[in-house]
Design a protein that fits this description.
about 375 residues, mainly alpha, Growth Hormone, Chain: A, two-stranded antiparallel sheet, 14 helices, 2 strands, about 80% helix
């Protein structure tokens, strides 16, 4: 039995993410092109997953105290995910896909919160954000690898969907075997904080996580594949390659910001997140493919940084339940965002708003303006609770 769980958690981030995310483009394109799903239907795939994951994330944070359950939870959920991947091959309607996505949401919430708690409890305090960032960076590499693999499959295979799902199932089995090696880590005593302060911090960090998830729900949802392909007339291979490249660059930026949180200041890292978010939103509104590439990179960067920073704050001050709350808030934000972007794209499509020689996407303009306001307020609120 390996005694240090950190390498196992990080390796699981790669395997588990690759296994799950290789399904995304395959299912999105299949639903849109074969089943004639609307953009809202595509958004509901993400929404059903996130709603279920939000609920199971809170459950996972509470049940972590039960050693026997927590020890086997990730492996069990990965095996179940392997089965679900094979079931997708026999689905012939969007409603069934949405249901399967909800099942995966339950499984992923239970598995990943448990793994993230183990990582946070095992990590030294002055390295938590950095290790979380490395963990999520490796997960991002899994996303990028999944997109690259699907890009290659779609270029050489007439039916990349079934092949992608088969690869997904096998990779989930490998992740389950690795998860069996992960030891249980007892929760450590938390930093001193009053009950009132604890509640305020929990609510503020949840607001922050919710608002950031709203902002990045577009680049991480299934809708992004459809939007970029149709608005910019790109091939499937080009779309997935662009997203993979954006994720790789964003991973590096996110790691740097997490190191800033550990070594310099959590507040400073959050201020940089705010600047990157404003820049990413502005770039997303400009209806040019190169601007979209920049926007995806910046928005994914704040996703990588915010995820690790919020979990650093949560596990240090609130414990396993705090990680569950943060995950739940992230998922709820993704639900609201993915449904909203799907509805807006159905309503506005590729419509543009001319403005001083530059055309702005009406879909993304309506989506991002209110979200940006909420996100900036949430960052200010969180900073009030930090030293």
């Amino acid at each position: 039995m390996l005694r240090n769980p950190i390498p196992i958690c990080i390796a699981l981030a790669l395997l588990g993410t690759l296994a799950f995310r290789i399904q995304h483009p395959a299912i999105s394109f299949y639903a849109r092109e074969i089943l004639h799903a609307s953009a809202l239907d595509i958004g509901l795939l993400t929404a059903s997953f996130m709603i279920a994951r939000a609920i199971s994330s809170i459950v996972a944070g509470w049940v972590y105290r039960y050693r026997s359950i927590a020890k086997l939870l990730p492996a069990t959920c990965f095996v179940a995910n392997a089965v679900v991947a094979l079931v997708y091959m026999y689905v012939r309607d969007v409603a069934s896909m949405i249901l399967l996505r909800a099942v995966q949401g339950i499984l992923n919430g239970l598995a990943w919160v448990t793994i993230q708690v183990v990582l946070g409890e095992a990590a030294p305090r002055n390295l938590r954000a950095t290790l979380y960032s490395i963990y999520f960076a490796v997960g991002s590499m899994g996303i990028a690898l999944a997109n690259y693999v699907y890009s290659c499959l779609s270029a050489v295979s007439v039916d990349p969907t079934k092949l992608s799902l088969a690869i997904s199932s096998l990779t989930f089995v490998a992740a389950a075997l690795l998860a069996l090696l992960m030891p249980y880590v007892e929760p450590r005593k938390k930093e001193g904080i009053s009950s009132r302060g604890s509640l305020g911090l929990a609510l503020s960090i949840m607001l922050f996580s919710f608002s950031i998830s709203l902002a990045i729900s577009f680049p991480v949802s299934e809708v992004v594949y459809i939007y970029v392909k149709e608005v910019f007339s790109m091939s499937k291979s080009s779309v997935t390659a662009m997203l993979a490249t954006a994720m790789l660059v964003a991973t590096i930026i996110g790691l740097i910001l997490s190191m800033v949180a550990d070594r310099l200041s959590e507040k400073l890292s959050l201020m940089i997140v705010a600047v990157l978010m404003v820049s990413g939103v502005v770039a997303a509104l400009i209806d040019v493919v190169y601007a979209m590439a920049i926007a995806l990179t910046l928005l994914l960067s704040i996703s990588r940084a915010s995820i690790s920073i919020s979990r650093r704050i949560a596990v240090s001050r609130l414990g396993p339940r705090g990680v569950g709350y943060v995950n739940a808030a992230n998922n709820i934000g993704s639900v609201v965002g993915s449904i909203t972007i799907g509805m807006l794209y159905d309503a506005f499509g590729a419509a543009r708003l001319p403005l001083d020689g530059v055309s702005l996407s009406l879909t993304l303009l309506a989506f991002y303006v209110p979200i940006l306001i909420v996100a900036m307020v949430s960052i200010v609120v969180v900073c009030r609770y930090l030293d």
